[in-house]
Specification:
Number of helices of chain B: 19
CATH architecture of chain A: 2-Layer Sandwich
Structural class of chain A: alpha+beta
Radius of gyration of chain A: 16 Å
Largest sheet of chain A: 4 strands, antiparallel
Strand order of the largest sheet of chain B: 1-2
CATH class of chain A: Alpha Beta
Strand content of chain B: under 5%
Shape of chain A: globular
Number of strands of chain B: 2
Radius of gyration of chain B: 25 Å
Number of domains of chain A: 1
Order of helices and strands of chain B: HHHHHHHHHHHEEHHHHHHHH
Number of helices of chain A: 3
Number of strands of chain A: 6
Order of helices and strands of chain A: EHEEEEHHE
Strand order of the largest sheet of chain A: 2-5-1-6
Oligomer: heterodimer
Chain lengths: 112, 373
Amino acid sequence: MKYALLIYSKPGSHEALPEDEYKEVFGEYAALVDDSRCIASGQLQPVETATTVRVQDGRTLTTDGPFADTKEVFGGYYVFEADNLDEAIELAGRIPAARLGGAVEVRPVVEH
Amino acid sequence: MVASLVGFLGDFDLAEEAAQEAFAIAAERWPERGVPDNPAGWLIATARNRAIDRIRRQRTLEAKTRLLDVPEVTVDEIDDAVIGDERLELIFTCCHPALAMEAQVALTLRALGGLTTEEIARAFILSEETMKRRLSRAKAKIKATGIPFAVPADHLLPDRVDAVLAVIYLIYNEGYSGRIDLAAEAIRLGQLLAELMPDEPEVHGLLALMLIHHARHRARFARSELVLLEEQDRSLWDMKALAKGREALDRAIALYGGGPYVLQAAIASLQAEDEIDWDEVAQLYCRLEALTGSPVVELNRAVAIAQAGELAAALDIVERLDLDDYQYLHSTRAGLLQRLGRGEEARASYERALKLATSEPERRFLQRRIAEL
């Protein structure tokens, strides 16, 4: 099955790390991309860059900022091929944001 | 039987339907043609074949077509090991932490306890419709998210065993409120688990704890009034359940168990002695507090210390606890103050407890205490 691992990190949590730790954490993210089960991944620019778009009565409404105003912000994702939810949970547990005050949401991807 | 079928089919609903069909066929055929040599094997083989038929009919569902390659099963291939042994996998699926706790409880009762949806609904004082939705949402999540039908890997096992024990203990504690005897059901589940995981001390610890508590439950109320442990009529205790509980506790201790359930069972066992060794009870609460960090455990330790005769030391502990909204903190404090001859303070504490009490027998109990002051 394919699982999307959606990364919600605590703003500033990664930047606040001392340089050597920051490098280590960065390496952990990269290692997950290199895992043979990783199908896709993406890191987003900081939430300050977000623009939200809605269409109402044919008019496009554009606003500054993210859609949801939450403490943790959506910062990136992985898509993994895994045998079952336990394997996906294990991979999610390796994502540094999960232990740095953030959380990872695991969602199976619809397959056709 | 359902467990074995879920393992084979990877689908709860399908397994349940197939099992029902197999029973229906058996009810029709066995009276005419006689019961087969291996009835359980016959039922499983029949259910499997029925399920495969069903899948063939619904072959639009792509994911299930892998089953089409499975050859028809004959009765000879089914032995008892296949039948019994997948219940453990089923327990871990039902008690997967990705499911809501209430869903874990309902699924466990349905799939392993064999309770009907209507019975589970009644036990939790919910409508059958609500319970049906809860169960089908849980089954849908199992399927959609790929919750495995497997015993977790070794490094995940301790956490996952804890999750299973928490579900069973929750069922036990719901025990006496509804019309279905969930406490007895929880004990049956505990026995099953102890059979399936004979080397896990906490499994035996939980079973011991439930059995020892259960042994005393008839004595806890007299004419629907709450009776304290020391005033209980011991002739009402179920001595067989108590002995079985102690047997399970011995087994847990022989396995070097010292987890929270084993400690609680050991405390319950000591409290069922004719002469209670309160010093030892207090020591066990101390170990339990070190494991759990729970102020409620600390409160219980204070009670044990008071019973051992050290009222002032007990009161010191109680005064330190941050449990202001907890009824039993105030009733315990009141009892200590009363015994220390501080009647007015005791009255204020009993009244605070009375304000927090929700059950009628407990309210009446507290009112009696206030009247005695």
